[in-house]
Write a structure and sequence with these properties.
6 strands, two-stranded antiparallel ribbon, 24% helix, alpha+beta, 2 domains
């Protein structure tokens, strides 16, 4: 902020370039006051020696798609007609016993103006469908 004020910068592109320079300077050149090391050098050394908490991402079982990890979630109870209600719509849920709780994984797609709803029961997906994006807010 100080650099932007001194140079009288207010445009987003000008400020963005100053921020990128500052991040590069801090990470690659400045000695950190607490560790006494340059952050990028310290991180690379920790990564090489395996002394880091970063781990490769793997999908937790039983999921097969990132959509089931990074999504909105809610639950519903299957009614006597093997249906659930979501976003003012009745959705048929096959192969799930009556009165069982199912997990809904909801993936909004603003470009298509739709919601992908993936219904899970006992660690397996029993149905996936697309619904139009509601015009009124959805409450979970």
């Amino acid at each position: 902020m100080r650099t932007c004020a001194l140079e009288k910068l207010s445009g987003l592109e000008d400020v963005r370039s100053i921020l990128q320079e500052e991040v590069k300077r801090y990470n690659d050149h400045q000695v950190h006051s607490t560790t006494g090391e340059i952050p990028h050098v310290r991180f690379e050394q920790a990564r090489r020696t395996g002394n880091t908490l970063f781990r490769p991402f793997t999908l937790p079982k039983p999921y097969t798609s990132l959509k089931d990890v990074f999504c909105l979630r809610t639950t519903r109870i299957v009614n006597g007609y093997r249906k659930i209600s979501f976003s003012s719509q009745e959705i048929e849920v096959p192969h799930v016993p009556l009165r069982e709780t199912v997990d809904l994984h909801i993936i909004p797609d603003s470009e298509k103006r739709s919601l992908e709803v993936r219904i899970w029961w006992q660690k397996r997906m029993v149905r996936a469908l697309h619904l139009p994006l509601p015009t009124t807010p959805v409450h979970f």
